[in-house]
Fold this protein.
Amino acid sequence: MLYNKKILITGATGFIGTCLAHRLAERGAELHLIVRPQSNLWRIKDILDKACLHNINLRNKDEVESVVIKLKPKIIYHCATYGGYHFQKDTNKIFETNIIGTINLLNICSKVGFDCFVNTGSSSEYGIKNEPMKELDVPEPVNDYGVAKASSTLFCQSVVRRYQLPIVSLRLFSPYGYYEEHTRLIPSVIMACLRGKNPKLSSPEPVRDFVFIADVIDAYMKVVGTSDISGEIFNIGYGEQHSVGEVVGKIVELTGNKVRPEWESVPKRANEPNVWQADITKAKNVLKWEPKYSLEKGLAKTVKWFMKNMTLYEEIINQEVKL
């Protein structure tokens, strides 16, 4: 279905975009990847011969137009984002990247037409809830990132209402796995364990709905093959929540039980909820998608991958230290 299809991916050097690009390269798609001029290509260097790179900034309308008008992509996976990591705090950049970038891309894609536009949303759009989050819940974000992502999703829906275009939003919960940013919980703990160092952590109590990256990418594939879903939002999570303590414990066990987590050695984050879980009923019923990997199986595959690819991260960390 995707063989020889002209596909455009934004945020192609990030965690989600990279894993999506690798899957599509395997499927023989005609891949076009939008990357920022200053992006590090380490995640996609092994598929550069299977893709065409476009160095543009989505916040620059003219640059976006020059690429999209020429390409006329049939499928657009919009994965570019800023603000999802704790160190991405520039408010203007959060809003410009997530809102202006989405507006520029979608408006120009609308001029040339497309078969499917998949917008990448976030569970941060919901804010704090007291039960599993449903797509019809009122967005009540508690940070700039959540506000910006919610605005982007609403903009996508408004375009569907005005022009009846095939646009869908996936609200991702807590993806983990291959190529994830080394500062995130799971990669940082895995790498500490593999080095024989005690992971430094804040609290074992916060909860998240962790979903393995292979399952997330399956969802992106399912959207393209499903009809009559324009304007819809789908939660993409595992459908269960686990505490940070549970996750860390499983990683320590998988890596040999040679380290001891040092809790409360880094500051706690504010606004940690007691419930952070996706209701994935809609995705199961409409997309016919559901996660295949339990937390145990997903973590086992992730640990195994990191064992083989630690050098990739060591190179990046060394570069960051030099900067």
